[in-house]
Amino acid sequence: MQVRYPDRMDHPNRHVRCGWAWRAVALLTAAALFAGTALAQDDSLPQDDAPVQDDPLAYRLEIFVVSHVTRDDGTREERYTEASEARPGQMVEYRIFVENVSDTTLPAGLVQIRLPVPEGTEYVPNSATPSSDRVLTEFSADRGRSFSEPPVLIGNDEQRSVADPTTYEEIRWTFFVELEPGQEEALVYRVIVR
Questions:
Q1: Residues 26-66: pLDDT tens digits?
Q2: Is residue 50 helix, strand or coil?
Q3: For 45, which DSSP code?
Q4: By the 8 A CB rule, do 122 and 194 touch?
Q5: What does the pLDDT look like over 152-188, one tens digit per residue?
Q6: Which residues of 89-119 are buried (b: 16+ CB within 10 A; e: fewer)?
Q7: Distance CA 190, CA 63 (A)
Q8: Helix, strand, coil % (nearest 5) of the chain?
């Protein structure tokens, strides 16, 4: 399934509006297959007479501005404030919850979630849900043409170099575990508003 998302997000008065994020949820990709039939389909593609099944995944997105606060004892802690917009210099955390809403177990390795690092922001290195035995976390610095775990290489042959993590443009998670009906998984990443 190929899903398109807007190339630009609104940021009038140098505020980045987080409303783009709901459009980004459309970029979440379910590449889950069952019995050879795609469970997630793109309506823009021609369809044959086969019955179309609903997307087996439901998505919930929470957006927070992250602040660092010094407590009375001198220790620092993070505070999270739900946000609909953020100002330059602020850190924003996106929490994506993915739930299998179908009656079918989704096979391991075939469910992928893909989200952009919005224009007007930069990825905070090491802030995405990391790779583990449950999920593979990969990044793209070439508008989603290729993905890899860090270090992410860009360029061609002799011109290849390692992309700075702040230049990552997309994040992709692939689940290595089956997603049972009703099972929910959480993914997180952060950006700084420029």
A1: 333 332 222 222 223 333 333 444 444 578 999 999 999 99
A2: coil
A3: S
A4: yes
A5: 999 887 889 999 999 999 999 999 999 999 999 999 9
A6: ebbbbbebebbbebeeebeeebbbbbbbbbe
A7: 10
A8: 10, 40, 50
